[in-house]
Batch of 3 targets.
Target 1
Amino acid sequence: MPSIKLTELEMQYISLFEAVTQVEAVDCVVDEECNRVIFVVKRGMAGKAIGGDGANVKMLRRLLQKDVDIVEESDTLEGLLRSALFPASVKSIEVKRDSSGRKIVVVEVPPEQKGLAIGRRGRNVKKVRLLAKRYFDVDHVALK
């Protein structure tokens, strides 16, 4: 994993997140375009972070006045993409380089889950692109 530098705002969001959820946040990504904050937590901690019936996420949404997404960390690109696309299932992940050397990832999902993977107005695929770039220096992610 690369070393991530957090802004003061991101550190404040992490502090609030940890106070509300009692779960340690590994990272925080502010996505102004989609008016949301993406928190990355340790493996196996997403359920606790979300809380019973989504109570923690609902409270964070009210406090931050932004949408809140929670993704489990992974040491592998495949693991991170699977976590970021959950609950959509991932059939395969292929990493390529285009003619200019850009790192391209093609993620295949079942046809009936493609809408779920993309999300409303492309929110989910944008989240995947942000995290893949931040952690694995991926230039583009495409869904198939």
Target 2
Amino acid sequence: MEQTNYPLLQNILIPGESAGFLQSVFEGARSWLQPRNPFEQLLTDMLAATLWRYARLATLEARILTIEQDIQPGFLLKQFKNLDAAGRAALVFNVWHKKFTALSRVEAIVLRNFHTLFKTFAEMRKAFPPAAREAK
């Protein structure tokens, strides 16, 4: 990825992900939170990166379901040949529930990180309002 004003963008993408869309996530976060200093800017970028990772987990889950449906062993396909796509996904989920449990744990960690970062950002804004800085 080319050099940007978002240092965290440099190593976050995996093949197949859109650099333009990722940059728009970062720009949207900065536009919404309007960081006032380098520390707030870093927290804002960390929040954007965390949101990106959370969205990626949903994509990974969908891809796992799709791939696993396509590579199910022949005996399962014969036994459950009348299943629709949702039934096949449920069968995959049943067989691969440990993988999905692990994915859910990662999802919980990512959400916890987001909430921690956002809380830190909000507390910093409360502790250092613009009027307090200007009065000094």
Target 3
Amino acid sequence: MEPEKDNSKKNYGQFILSEYLTEMDNMIRTLTLRGMAAGNDGDFETAFLHMELALWMSKCLENKCLEATLLNNIGLLYTMQGTWDKALFTFDRAMEIALAFCRAQDKFLSVLKRNISCLFDPKITIPGDPDTD
């Protein structure tokens, strides 16, 4: 007769991992909200700092759909900053990832396409542009 295996260590390890992943998700969410709020306030240095950290964390988690979402948000920040070439590059990277890795991508891709189209809309103004203020 074989002795029973003690699964309590394995279950505890899974619990710790689950808690860790939940905390990482919460931190990414917080960084994203703070980053976008800073961008809305015109503080792009803080905005990009928060968003780049959130992006790095998503890469550590190997969550490609989250990575695409964060790249989309970074693209929005570049658009708000008036850095159109970086915005287009970032949106393009987000679309590549979404097409390759995200299951429910139709809605996300329509958001990305709309964001990209904003780059070509003459009604979009750069925050703080003296010609439009």
